[in-house]
């Protein structure tokens, strides 16, 4: 039975059952595959026949995970990588060459910033940053050699948002690739390809897994674009392991129900903290006070599970709050079943200069709260006692 419903697709899409008639997909822990004869081997390596030749290229578990993600995101094809950063690096590496230019949102993950400034800049790729809250400035940054627009929305950790439809129109007008890091929203809350994005990227380590167990990434797009990604990835080797692919595919079965609870809890936390006298600022997409609230409501189903706050009193107050948390974990990760607090200025974004952090709203008092699936009363009680 075919379905267009997210939950059913995520649960019922799986590899063909073997002669053992297993109900749940097995793990295919194999590095290579057997060919029926020399001709089949030749045809597979010549891409004249579909099939598995080596698990660095494909594996039944990674294929199942990719198929699910394509159906959920509205993409034609995809490639799964070992980490989220491997997905970003592979996308940049597949499409950017010496002399190319890229326009990126200023609000990007710290490691993405490092790739742009310390890796691809050494390979002759130039870039300009643009602010998500100033869409009027973006078109002026596009040059004759601009090849790509890259954006996180919502951004990490500033929770800034830009209109995906605006970016889709801009990319089409100038014939450039639009690449969206959709990690914070997941395909359940947002599908960038519907708004004109050519490629959507996820760190599957985050909400796709959702339980802090495995690393993974995925690149989704048209068949033609993903063919270029695969050509680069086959030789650079960022492939996702079959075991992690199996975990991630199984995790997708509960993504919708998990995201519903993450969003419900996060909104309650945001509403509570917005009224707290010790909190200077709260950023959450579905708070009416968010600068891009109307855009978030247009392109996102719900607001996500991340709330970013600024504590009154700077870094000392931020440290006191974090050290006072009893249930929240202090960790650099996010999107776990367990609630997590992170101080971006001294961890995930510590390699940025103070000026660069200020430009994207990361203050010394900024704290990223990844709201988990615990009971909301316990989450709020822990925050309340830590702020006391």
UniProtKB/TrEMBL annotation:
<dbReference type="InterPro" id="IPR000277">
    <property type="entry name" value="Cys/Met-Metab_PyrdxlP-dep_enz"/>
</dbReference>
<dbReference type="GO" id="GO:0030170">
    <property type="term" value="F:pyridoxal phosphate binding"/>
</dbReference>
<dbReference type="InterPro" id="IPR015422">
    <property type="entry name" value="PyrdxlP-dep_Trfase_small"/>
</dbReference>
<feature type="modified residue" description="N6-(pyridoxal phosphate)lysine">
    <location>
        <position position="206"/>
    </location>
</feature>
<comment type="pathway">
    <text>Amino-acid biosynthesis; L-methionine biosynthesis via de novo pathway; L-homocysteine from O-succinyl-L-homoserine: step 1/1.</text>
</comment>
<dbReference type="Pfam" id="PF01053">
    <property type="entry name" value="Cys_Met_Meta_PP"/>
</dbReference>
<dbReference type="GO" id="GO:0016846">
    <property type="term" value="F:carbon-sulfur lyase activity"/>
</dbReference>
<keyword id="KW-0808">Transferase</keyword>
<keyword id="KW-0663">Pyridoxal phosphate</keyword>
<dbReference type="GO" id="GO:0071268">
    <property type="term" value="P:homocysteine biosynthetic process"/>
</dbReference>
<comment type="similarity">
    <text>Belongs to the trans-sulfuration enzymes family. MetZ subfamily.</text>
</comment>
<keyword id="KW-0486">Methionine biosynthesis</keyword>
<dbReference type="GO" id="GO:0016765">
    <property type="term" value="F:transferase activity, transferring alkyl or aryl (other than methyl) groups"/>
</dbReference>
<dbReference type="InterPro" id="IPR015424">
    <property type="entry name" value="PyrdxlP-dep_Trfase"/>
</dbReference>
<dbReference type="InterPro" id="IPR015421">
    <property type="entry name" value="PyrdxlP-dep_Trfase_major"/>
</dbReference>
<dbReference type="GO" id="GO:0019346">
    <property type="term" value="P:transsulfuration"/>
</dbReference>
<keyword id="KW-0028">Amino-acid biosynthesis</keyword>
<comment type="subunit">
    <text>Homotetramer.</text>
</comment>
<comment type="function">
    <text>Catalyzes the formation of L-homocysteine from O-succinyl-L-homoserine (OSHS) and hydrogen sulfide.</text>
</comment>
<protein>
    <recommendedName>
        <fullName>O-succinylhomoserine sulfhydrylase</fullName>
        <ecNumber>2.5.1.-</ecNumber>
    </recommendedName>
</protein>
<dbReference type="GO" id="GO:0005737">
    <property type="term" value="C:cytoplasm"/>
</dbReference>
<dbReference type="GO" id="GO:0071266">
    <property type="term" value="P:'de novo' L-methionine biosynthetic process"/>
</dbReference>
<dbReference type="InterPro" id="IPR006234">
    <property type="entry name" value="O-succ-hSer_sulfhydrylase"/>
</dbReference>
């Amino acid at each position: 039975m075919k379905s267009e419903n997210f939950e059913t697709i995520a649960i019922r899409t799986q590899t063909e059952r073997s002669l053992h008639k297993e109900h749940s997909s097995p793990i295919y822990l194999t590095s290579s595959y057997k060919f029926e004869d020399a001709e089949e081997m030749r045809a597979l390596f010549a891409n004249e026949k579909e099939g598995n030749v080596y698990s660095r290229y494909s594996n039944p578990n990674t294929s199942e995970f990719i198929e699910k993600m394509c159906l959920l995101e509205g993409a034609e094809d995809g490639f799964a990588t070992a980490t989220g950063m491997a997905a970003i690096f592979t996308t940049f590496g597949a499409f950017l060459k010496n002399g190319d230019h890229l326009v990126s949102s200023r609000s990007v993950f710290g490691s993405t910033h490092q790739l742009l400034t310390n890796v691809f800049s050494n390979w002759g790729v130039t870039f300009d940053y643009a602010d998500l809250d100033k869409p009027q400035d973006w078109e002026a940054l596009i040059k004759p050699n601009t090849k790509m627009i890259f954006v996180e929305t919502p951004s990490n950790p500033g929770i800034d948002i830009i209109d995906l439809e605006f970016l889709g129109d801009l990319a089409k007008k100038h014939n450039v690739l639009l690449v969206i890091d959709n990690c914070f929203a997941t395909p359940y809350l947002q599908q960038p390809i519907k708004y004109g994005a050519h490629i959507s990227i996820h760190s599957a380590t985050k909400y796709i897994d959702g339980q802090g167990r495995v690393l993974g990434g995925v690149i989704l797009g048209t068949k033609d674009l993903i063919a270029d990604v695969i050509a680069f990835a086959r030789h650079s080797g960022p492939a996702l392991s079959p075991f992690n692919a199996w975990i991630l595919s199984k995790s997708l079965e509960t993504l919708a129900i998990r995201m519903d609870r993450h969003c419900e809890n996060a909104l309650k936390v945001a509403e509570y903290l917005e009224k707290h006298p010790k909190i200077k600022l709260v950023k959450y997409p579905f708070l009416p006070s968010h600068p891009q609230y109307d855009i978030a409501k247009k392109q996102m189903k719900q607001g996500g599970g991340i709330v970013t706050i600024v504590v009154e009193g700077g870094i000392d107050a931020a440290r006191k709050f974090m050290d006072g948390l009893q249930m929240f974990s202090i960790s650099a990760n996010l999107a776990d079943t367990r609630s997590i607090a992170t101080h971006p200025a001294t961890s995930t974004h510590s390699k940025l200069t103070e000026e660069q952090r200020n430009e994207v709203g990361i203050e010394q008092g900024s704290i990223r709260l990844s709201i988990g699936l615990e009971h909301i009363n316990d989450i709020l009680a822990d925050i309340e006692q830590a702020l006391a």
